[in-house]
Amino acid sequence: METNASTKIKSPGGKTSIIDCDIHATIPLDGIKPYLPRIYREQVETWGRRLPGQNHMYLNGGTNGSMQEHQPPRNKEEDSYLNYIRAQHIDKFNLEYGIMTGSDYGVHTTPDTDYAAALCSASNDYVIEHYLSRDSRLKGSVHIPKQDPILAAKEIDRVGSHPDMVQVIVSNGAIKPYGNRMYEPIYEACVRNNLPFAIHVSMEGIGINNPPTGAGYVSYYAEYRAARTQIMMAHMASFIFEGVFVKYPDLKVIMVEAGMMWVAPFIWRLDQDWKALRHQTPWVKEPPSEYYRKHMKVTSQPIELPPQKEMFMPMMEAIYARENLMFASDYPHWDFDSPLLAFPKMDEEMKERIFYQNAAELYRLPARKQAAGGARA
Amino acid sequence: METNASTKIKSPGGKTSIIDCDIHATIPLDGIKPYLPRIYREQVETWGRRLPGQNHMYLNGGTNGSMQEHQPPRNKEEDSYLNYIRAQHIDKFNLEYGIMTGSDYGVHTTPDTDYAAALCSASNDYVIEHYLSRDSRLKGSVHIPKQDPILAAKEIDRVGSHPDMVQVIVSNGAIKPYGNRMYEPIYEACVRNNLPFAIHVSMEGIGINNPPTGAGYVSYYAEYRAARTQIMMAHMASFIFEGVFVKYPDLKVIMVEAGMMWVAPFIWRLDQDWKALRHQTPWVKEPPSEYYRKHMKVTSQPIELPPQKEMFMPMMEAIYARENLMFASDYPHWDFDSPLLAFPKMDEEMKERIFYQNAAELYRLPARKQAAGGARA
Lengths: 377, 377
Prior knowledge:
The structure is a homodimer of 377-residue chains. Chain A is α/β, with parallel strands linked by helices. Chain A contains 13 helices and eight strands. An eight-stranded parallel β-sheet of chain A has the order 1-2-3-4-5-6-7-8. In chain A, strand 4, helix 6 (184-192) and strand 5 (197-200) form a beta-alpha-beta unit.
């Protein structure tokens, strides 16, 4: 892959602006230490991160999960990470906006809830100071200690009103599907702060989370990746059948990195079962596909591309891609999707909506004139 | 629904013979008691069935899970249940064959493994004597105490060579995905006895099984039904990536009652991930979709029908329905699929393969002249 920052690549089709809904940037432990309370700063100095990790259970791809080309600087100069992802990704693909989704989801699955809360706050503050305030193209995600929904809501209220924080984010791995009423304080805080709720694949079966499938632990990473989608399905059905969108009509939910084409047969099934069984959940007034269309978004990477090319567009329509799909690259992970190569040919309107408009509307991102480097300073 | 046995209905399209791959017939506790060892017979007399049950956790549909029209006789005359399902289903739809899949999957999730083994043996013997030996159209499934794969293999060897036993069957709910090596004695016995291995949805998250989703317990039956498919996905990925079909090239696996259209995006995803990650599981020599095509079958009910009618046939081709799909009615459950109504229009060849040929080949069922009642006696 070309790593020269001066090599600007025009956006897909040449005209479409790009919002990338899933960028992982380095958030170094040394960097967030100053934001931690003294007790945890001292613990971290002795014990390190001390968080459950996926890689202790399941292999990943690439080099430690990232593209081999991604080798961020190891020195601690303040802007070095930012400059690196600018050169490698943001400038290179001339992104209009990039949504940062965080770098360590282990916080969502440690049993030490106060430590999780401290790490979330420190990491949120670090991201604001070292990324968001230095490049107006970058937007942030509020990590929360979801182990304690009341504490989580406090963190959303603390930092969620920052103009560059555009969503709340949690790992896909969980102990209960996210429609469960135990999470309600989180959704109240999301609505109060006008923030969508994003679920990003990670930490399935790790730490305090439930095993990664309904049949227990899997053995290999390929199975593990498949299991992530299954868990996202469970969250989606849970949001709908628990009536979360009836209780919180302004809530939006984003499903990040769990694939996309699976949504089609899944909503066919949910709609059928709802028709037959809706007397059991009378608060679910509309077919499940309607709640999906009105309240949920799905990001593109990784795309399950049908080998039968003629099925691509019908599948895109079946998942309501025109309104519900948003492009994500997952930079810098090994299964990165280049905006130039991710999709087969689409009509201009669909391209515009997937690469830009759907995310711009959801995150309320104003159209902006693309400056050379996009830096505010 | 018409319940008069004299109302014979011609098979779909008038010419196609029908093999129904999922029929549940009553196996009464009083009926199997004589087949139990004395210790369990006495326990059953005091405590009843004593098995974990889905309905204690999650609602079902219809009347206790069955169609309202299904009201089998309560007297204990030897042939009354058999005569009832003949009149209600087998004669009515003029079935060529019907595969009986059992009536109580709680045996697969009790912690009392020897009790499970005794119940499986008793139920298998009852089915042979009271159904299979009295109607040559009915074929049976060997229930096994999967809690102990060695004991399970013994039951397969004990009863699996009976000419009317055509498969081994277990519940979809499990503590480990079925590709795990702990189950190998079962697959050795399947191959030794020339029997396919069927996974039937049931008992997800019940008794000793893992919670029904990778995010823990769901709240409602509609979610629960969606979760069953997720678990079947986990089993499918597990069989493929653990290399079960490499170790047992003659093994066939049937996925019963978990839907069918989901297979398409699922194998697209598995094939892509295998391409990128196959160095991690080098024993998986072919793309996952090839193992599915050669070793797995899926039954039809419940069918996720696309609301976009023009997608039906492309989806059928994408799941390789011509070779891999077999019709199932799930009689007498509330979500029963009539062979006359289950499918939209298909070409004759596909209809013939789904309703008859695929099952006839898999179960090695000879073509037979349809006798009026099909009874041997």
